[in-house]
Amino acid sequence: MYLTPQRILLAGATGLTGEHLLDRLLNEPTVECVLAPTRRPLAEHPRLENPVGELEALLPQLSGDIDTAFCCLGTTIKQAGSEEAFHAIDHDLIVAFAQRARELGARHLLVISSLGADVDSRFFYTRVKGEVERDLIAQDWPQLTIARPSHLLGTRIEPRLSEQLAGPLTQLLPGKYRGIDACALAWALWRLALEQGNGVRIVESDELRKLGQ
């Protein structure tokens, strides 16, 4: 059974996946409005609301009824500057965004996590991703979709050297470990948003690639 989202809240619209998803949403005639807070202004569109500023400060100011929320936030420890700063963005801000989306009436949250997310992971990055998943599940969403992509492929405004070097190699890996194009991930998220369901669904990278074809 499918449900067409009408009013969308999107975090991370200027990121690699978020920009593709925003383009997808604004080209869907069934989408009434996209509320996309960003640090830098987006191109104007008649169905786009774009509050500009730091997301943490903007969250309390967001208003209006929301049907579906997408969270495409994410950084690296290098970009954040420290593990603490990374945790503040990739955990605290995501959880706060999700809570605000619920307060605005969103029934379905779709969030980008990571391959290997696990609260017991030995690796800081995947451990934080596991903690995010745990804390979002604890919010008891009517419908929560967690996407676990592998290495993201695509051209960023601010290139990440590690992604540029590893990208071609991940294309040779099997199954869920193979790299996934950010545009395909965005398309997969949109298709998942159209599915009406209940509870938590975790979607691994190989399934995301199929959905994004």
TrEMBL record:
Gene3D superfamilies to which the protein is assigned, alphabetical: NAD(P)-binding Rossmann-like Domain
CDD domains: CC3_like_SDR_a
SMART domains reported for this sequence: Semialdhyde_dh
Domain Semialdehyde dehydrogenase NAD-binding: 7-106
Domain of life: Bacteria
InterPro entries: Him1/Fmp52, NAD(P)-bd_dom_sf, Semialdehyde_DH_NAD-bd
A Pfam cross-reference name: HIM1
Name the UniProt record assigns to this protein: Oxidoreductase
